[in-house]
Amino acid sequence: MPRDGGDVVTLADYAGRKLVLFFYPRADTPGCTREAIDFTRLAGAFTAAGTAVLGISADPLKAQEKFRDKHKLGVPLISDEKHEMLEAYGAWGQKSMYGKSFLGILRTTILIGPDGRVTRIWRNVRVDGHADEVLEAARSL
């Protein structure tokens, strides 16, 4: 998948390491900003725990890069405009707001173990305290 800065990321790049994938609905919105800032704040602790962190949304790369620069984010941001990864991990689905239903990104976090297997899934994530909870789960692997 394409990431901020123009590189491409594959899961194989993280073989043998723990990996956190946090799927967020839209760059530079209040909840998504708090979540990305929290993961950035804990980036050193995740690294110490042998865990890489990637943020994924359907935003185009330009929006991802603007979001990264504006908030000085320190985790790679992945652009999944075709929803391939979002759908594969169950982070794309039916949402509702103000009585209307639509398809969109479901705030989800996936923890993958060093063996490449999904070890934990958080669905319908509440942002406050979430990155800390994910860090503790990663440390316990």
Fold topology:
Layout: E1 18-23, H1 30-41, H2 43-48, E2 51-57, H3 61-71, E3 77-79, H4 84-88, E4 92-97, E5 100-105, E6 108-112, E7 118-122, H5 130-139
Parallel strand pairs: 1-2, 2-3
Antiparallel strand pairs: 1-6, 4-5, 6-7
Overall description:
This protein is α/β, with parallel strands linked by helices and 141 residues long. It has a single domain, classed as Glutaredoxin (3-Layer(aba) Sandwich), CATH 3.40.30. It is built from five helices and seven strands, in the order βααβαβαββββα. Strands 3-2-1-6-7 form a five-stranded mixed sheet. Strand 4 and strand 5 (100-105) form a beta hairpin. The longest helix has 12 residues, at 30-41. The two termini are 26 Å apart.
Outline the low-pLDDT stretches.
none
Class per helix and strand makeup: alpha/beta
CATH level-four homologous superfamily name = Glutaredoxin
Strand order of the largest sheet: 3-2-1-6-7
Indicate the radius of gyration in whole angstroms. 14 Å
Mean of residue pLDDT values:
96
Please tally the β strands and state the result: 7
Level-2 CATH architecture: 3-Layer(aba) Sandwich
Report how far the terminal alpha carbons are from each other: 26 Å
The multimeric state of the shown protein is: single chain
CATH top level is Alpha Beta
Q: Percent helix among the residues?
A: 25-40%
CATH topology name: Glutaredoxin
Biggest sheet features: 5 strands, mixed
Total helices: the number is 5
Whole-number total of structural domains:
1
- Strand residue percentage: 25-35%
